[in-house]
Amino acid sequence: MAQADDLPPLREVIATHGLAARKSLGQNFLLDLNLTGRIARAAEVEDRVVVEVGPGPGGLTRALLTAGARRVIAIERDERCLPALAEIADHYPGRLQVISGDALAVDFPALVGGEPAQIVANLPYNVGTALLVGWLESEPWPPWWRSLTLMFQREVAERIVAPPGSEAYGRLGVIAGWRTEAKILFDISPAAFTPPPKVTSSVVRLIPRTTLLPCAAADLSRVTAAAFGQRRKMLRSSLKSLGGDTAALIEAAGLDPTARAETVPIEGFAALARAVAAMKAGTAP
Ligand code: SAM
Q1: Residue of 173, 212, 215, 274 with fewest CB within 10 Å of its CB?
Q2: What domains sit in the chain, N to C, each tagged with a CATH number?
Q3: What is the tens place of the pLDDT at every residue in 140-177?
Q4: Which residues contact 272 (CB under 8 A, 6 or more apart)?
């Protein structure tokens, strides 16, 4: 596919700026313009504020700007990438702001300044899940972001969209399903990246739910940590780590004490989180 802007081809950018990929930073660069364009279109960024984590040499960044993003705020940890990103910023005056630093330490709501943003990223595999969980546990809700369009290893994508009863169902599926509608859009083969990773990647899109099953994110996190921490055990055993009267908690949540975490639907975990909150507040039945 032809270059959609007048900037140098990405391979040239990488060579000019000496951006040999570093494994420690999860660097697998996506140089296929068909794919960067496809991700940008799937993210529906036209006239929107976009937050991108890990722009690297800027392939996806350029696709987002070409697709009409009004403003892109890109956070990159690798300082070697900054000159290449500065060239893109010069090419699109006033539309690309590059923040040099660790995305795990960024105050995102302060950065976007009140306007709901689309988050789009080919995430570094080593911090991708931590970033996602942080975004899913955002308070207040609805969150500061209006959609997430993210690339993960296929196995992580499957855990995000996993339904109860499936092998991949776990804490990530509960928090993602509680707060969003999540869907795998398409896969990307290792061959599309430089260097190629060992596994297939998938693009996942998550849209915040406006109506949530009532419970607090922190309580939900506690109960899923206990239940899935020992996923093969029955709830009456795995939930003992929550303290208090385990049988009463399970009964208050309307769950079967002999059930295992992987069969409990999200509604069940929300009920358990409410029961834990009531126990803490001393209002449990
Ligand atoms: N967006 C580029 C692409 O699609 O080709 C690069 C994606 S690469 C998988 C991940 C990028 O995230 C790298 O540029 C890496 O330097 C950057 N990165 C790694 N850890 C980061 C962190 N904690 N905060 C911000 N960026 C990070």
Answers
A1: 212
A2: 10-208 (3.40.50.150), 217-281 (1.10.8.100)
A3: 999 999 999 999 999 999 999 999 999 999 999 999 99
A4: 223, 227, 239, 249, 250, 253, 255, 264
